[in-house]
């Protein structure tokens, strides 16, 4: 459920007409609903209520906007980060370091040092050389790093190949069959406190079976590790729970169903469970608002050309992702059209031969479920300014990231002396 609905024939974000924001901020613009964020956090937490003190660490990569993170911090969420930049964003937004987990395959010495200085809760290690590097950094600082190994369980998540992370050919984690050797070696490294196990098999999962398979493997591994003398105290079960993009497809499992499965599978583990939800928290909480530039008749159907582009919302181009497209003021008529942006790439296509609300030049269109992996993946391709972001609460709204002037892009470049004059 989200808080974007029609009132008197006009699409609103909570109590704010989207057309009001477009008139004052311009388009394209991302718009986030505080009430939706609050509801999703509440539903996810309720699903995990039977667990003792779970750490819910929001996946910052899904939406790193400072206002979004500050909203989630007020709701008590931690953060799952994958870079120094995300770590600093989370802390600046008010998320305590004691609720931050650092994941990612390519942590540098500088990032490790920064995370240790702030005193984060856990590093999720993804290779034995990474463990050795972290040990050296921790020793040089006189600190101890709390760590878990991310295990690759070789489980096919059944999701898009580019967001699958738990198969043996994926770059993430250490092979399940090598876990005992890796843990034995890590236990011998000074400066490390080997406290947990981590797993994350992919994003936008629409079936609980792969997750249950991976979690079952984690449970068996915890037993083996303890038998080998390792004091396992935490288990990070990652994220990946899908959200409904296409209303024609089956609805993904609910957080309640996910939570019930987790409670059943992890019974008796005697660990603090950790979770890294991203999309399921922010996906439905955001839309990308765009304006129709013109409608162009093609050989077989019209092209609806909008001012948003693949650099603003990359998912359709990168993943063939589906986003519901709604007119802000529907005319009670439908048309089959292809919706495209102005970028000079055929891949700048949001929908092909889609039945949508009939629109004309200057009409507003909303790309729904755009709160996750939207603005965070935006670029300045074709020298287009980054998309601004707005946060709504009730009948109030604020720009939480302004649209930078194009001149700022130009001024960011430097022309060497030999090209001047």
From TrEMBL:
<dbReference type="InterPro" id="IPR022644">
    <property type="entry name" value="De-COase2_N"/>
</dbReference>
<dbReference type="GO" id="GO:0009089">
    <property type="term" value="P:lysine biosynthetic process via diaminopimelate"/>
</dbReference>
<feature type="binding site">
    <location>
        <position position="315"/>
    </location>
    <ligand>
        <name>substrate</name>
    </ligand>
</feature>
<feature type="binding site">
    <location>
        <position position="345"/>
    </location>
    <ligand>
        <name>substrate</name>
    </ligand>
</feature>
<keyword id="KW-0456">Lyase</keyword>
<feature type="binding site">
    <location>
        <position position="373"/>
    </location>
    <ligand>
        <name>substrate</name>
    </ligand>
</feature>
<comment type="function">
    <text>Specifically catalyzes the decarboxylation of meso-diaminopimelate (meso-DAP) to L-lysine.</text>
</comment>
<feature type="binding site">
    <location>
        <position position="240"/>
    </location>
    <ligand>
        <name>pyridoxal 5'-phosphate</name>
    </ligand>
</feature>
<keyword id="KW-0210">Decarboxylase</keyword>
<dbReference type="InterPro" id="IPR029066">
    <property type="entry name" value="PLP-binding_barrel"/>
</dbReference>
<dbReference type="GO" id="GO:0008836">
    <property type="term" value="F:diaminopimelate decarboxylase activity"/>
</dbReference>
<feature type="active site" description="Proton donor">
    <location>
        <position position="344"/>
    </location>
</feature>
<dbReference type="Pfam" id="PF02784">
    <property type="entry name" value="Orn_Arg_deC_N"/>
</dbReference>
<dbReference type="InterPro" id="IPR000183">
    <property type="entry name" value="Orn/DAP/Arg_de-COase"/>
</dbReference>
<keyword id="KW-0457">Lysine biosynthesis</keyword>
<comment type="pathway">
    <text>Amino-acid biosynthesis; L-lysine biosynthesis via DAP pathway; L-lysine from DL-2,6-diaminopimelate: step 1/1.</text>
</comment>
<feature type="binding site">
    <location>
        <position position="319"/>
    </location>
    <ligand>
        <name>substrate</name>
    </ligand>
</feature>
<protein>
    <recommendedName>
        <fullName>Diaminopimelate decarboxylase</fullName>
        <ecNumber>4.1.1.20</ecNumber>
    </recommendedName>
</protein>
<feature type="binding site">
    <location>
        <position position="279"/>
    </location>
    <ligand>
        <name>substrate</name>
    </ligand>
</feature>
<feature type="domain" description="Orn/DAP/Arg decarboxylase 2 N-terminal">
    <location>
        <begin position="36"/>
        <end position="282"/>
    </location>
</feature>
<keyword id="KW-0663">Pyridoxal phosphate</keyword>
<dbReference type="InterPro" id="IPR009006">
    <property type="entry name" value="Ala_racemase/Decarboxylase_C"/>
</dbReference>
<keyword id="KW-0028">Amino-acid biosynthesis</keyword>
<dbReference type="GO" id="GO:0030170">
    <property type="term" value="F:pyridoxal phosphate binding"/>
</dbReference>
<feature type="binding site">
    <location>
        <position position="373"/>
    </location>
    <ligand>
        <name>pyridoxal 5'-phosphate</name>
    </ligand>
</feature>
<comment type="subunit">
    <text>Homodimer.</text>
</comment>
<feature type="binding site">
    <location>
        <begin position="276"/>
        <end position="279"/>
    </location>
    <ligand>
        <name>pyridoxal 5'-phosphate</name>
    </ligand>
</feature>
<dbReference type="InterPro" id="IPR002986">
    <property type="entry name" value="DAP_deCOOHase_LysA"/>
</dbReference>
<comment type="similarity">
    <text>Belongs to the Orn/Lys/Arg decarboxylase class-II family. LysA subfamily.</text>
</comment>
<feature type="modified residue" description="N6-(pyridoxal phosphate)lysine">
    <location>
        <position position="61"/>
    </location>
</feature>
<dbReference type="InterPro" id="IPR022653">
    <property type="entry name" value="De-COase2_pyr-phos_BS"/>
</dbReference>
């Amino acid at each position: 459920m989200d808080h974007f609905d029609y009132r008197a024939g006009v699409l609103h974000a909570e109590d704010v007409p989207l057309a009001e924001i477009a008139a004052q901020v311009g388009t394209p613009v991302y718009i986030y609903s505080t009430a939706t964020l609050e509801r999703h956090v509440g539903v996810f937490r309720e699903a995990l209520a039977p667990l003792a003190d779970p750490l819910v660490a929001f996946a910052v990569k899904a939406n790193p906007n400072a206002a979004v993170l500050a909203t989630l911090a007020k709701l008590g969420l931690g953060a799952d980060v994958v870079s120094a930049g995300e770590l600093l964003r989370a802390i600046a937004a008010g998320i305590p370091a004691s609720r931050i987990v650092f994941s990612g395959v390519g942590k540098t010495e500088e990032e490790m040092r920064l995370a240790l200085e702030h005193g984060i809760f856990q590093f999720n290690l993804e290779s034995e050389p990474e463990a050795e590097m972290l040990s050296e950094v921790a020793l040089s600082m006189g600190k101890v790093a709390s760590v878990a190994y991310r295990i690759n369980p070789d489980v096919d998540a059944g999701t898009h190949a580019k967001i699958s992370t738990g198969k043996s050919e994926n770059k993430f984690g250490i092979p399940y069959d090598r876990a005992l050797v890796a843990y034995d070696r890590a236990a011998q490294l000074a400066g490390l406190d080997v406290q947990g196990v981590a797993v994350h098999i992919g994003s936008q999962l629409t079936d609980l079976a792969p997750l249950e398979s991976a979690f079952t493997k984690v449970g068996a591994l915890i037993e083996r590790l303890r038998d080998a003398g390792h004091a396992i105290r935490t288990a990070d079960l990652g994220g990946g729970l899908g959200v409904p993009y296409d209303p024609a497809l089956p609805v993904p499992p609910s957080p309640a169903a996910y939570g019930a499965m987790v409670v059943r599978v992890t019974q008796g583990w005697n660990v603090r469970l950790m979770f890294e939800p991203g999309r399921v928290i922010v996906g439905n909480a955001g839309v990308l608002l765009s304006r129709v530039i013109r409608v162009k008749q093609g050989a077989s159907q019209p092209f609806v050309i909008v001012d948003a582009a693949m650099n603003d919302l990359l998912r359709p181009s990168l993943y063939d992702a589906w986003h519901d497209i709604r007119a802000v003021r529907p005319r009670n008529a439908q048309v089959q059209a292809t919706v495209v942006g102005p970028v000079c790439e055929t891949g700048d296509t949001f929908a092909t031969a889609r039945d949508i609300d009939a629109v004309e030049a200057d009409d507003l269109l909303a790309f729904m479920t755009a709160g996750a992996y939207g603005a965070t993946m935006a670029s300045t391709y074709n020298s287009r300014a980054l998309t601004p972001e707005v946060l709504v609460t009730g009948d109030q709204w604020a720009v939480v990231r302004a649209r930078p002037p194009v001149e700022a892009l130009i001024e960011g470049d430097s022309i060497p002396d030999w090209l001047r004059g």
